[in-house]
């Protein structure tokens, strides 16, 4: 009941947005739309009731970033002081991130230049970095690097035995997690994900989520936010599976362009944002080599 009450108050983090509970009670996408428009001053600070707040994203959707930033700004201006962990910073860059803050405090562009990984549209992340710097909040480099993820995929010994145990990666993946993640991979590759690559990809996805979960645990004393793709925020297959936290301690919010049926129940709340116009990724899809 404590989580239900806190979640009700935290609806204001969806300030000014229509929200959809993550339960399959209604529309063609598997979500019931309540049409609620929550005021900007209806208690967003109640985010502080959760030890872990996981806020998703569609990486290239500016409107999703804008709404998420507005939610964070509202809560932080109300007095919340969490650490902010970001998928966009690889864990090896924490020292660079901290050094950039010492060199030029408050300079988000300098921090991105010194610690940001290639491949991200940093114009979408600069505002939240500036928010963290303005309030002197901890910024956490949370992600497994692409090189290490590739190493995991290829079966390399990226983690020593002690770290694998600490991360929860010393045992085979739970069957339900592997099955659900497999379905997601096939869906995101238009049904043509190469079977030969599947075991390695499952291990790499699990490693990334486990590493991000460890980063959150290390900075949870005063609350921590994770900013990451919606897949990492999912409670069934993402970071929450690796946190080892009580459900009442965790709030998950997805910022989705559309709510797929398999995502029903995967988040505490869903914010639907207008989709970005893109070429159909499956328009020329062909079966990949087996």
Outline:
The longest helix is centred in the last third of the chain and has 20 residues, at 198-217. This protein has a seven-stranded mixed β-sheet with strand order 1-7-6-2-5-3-4, with helices on both faces.
Describe what you observe in this structure.
The chain is an alpha/beta fold. It has a domain at 144-221. It contains eleven helices and seven strands. The protein has helices at 2-10, 62-77, 94-103, 108-115, 126-134, 146-153, 161-167, 175-188, 198-217, 230-233, 240-243, and strands at 19-21, 52-55, 83-90, 139-143, 224-227, 250-256, 269-272. A seven-stranded mixed β-sheet has the order 1-7-6-2-5-3-4, sandwiched between helices. The protein is globular, with a radius of gyration of 19 Å. Residues 45-243 form the Haem-binding uptake Tiki superfamily ChaN domain. Keywords: Lipoprotein, Signal. InterPro entries: Cofac_haem-bd_dom.
User: What oligomeric arrangement do these chains adopt?
Assistant: single chain
How would you state the average pLDDT, rounded?
A: 84
Strand order of the largest sheet: 1-7-6-2-5-3-4
Shape, principal axes of CA atoms: globular
Total count of strands: 7
The helix/strand class is alpha/beta
- Number of separate helices: 11
Order of helices and strands: HEEHEHHHEHHHHEHHEE
> Strand share of the residues?
5-15%
Radius of gyration, in angstroms, nearest whole number:
19 Å
Distance between the termini: 48 Å
Helix content: 25-40%
Main features:
290 residues, 7 strands, alpha/beta, signal, 38% helix, lipoprotein, seven-stranded mixed beta sheet
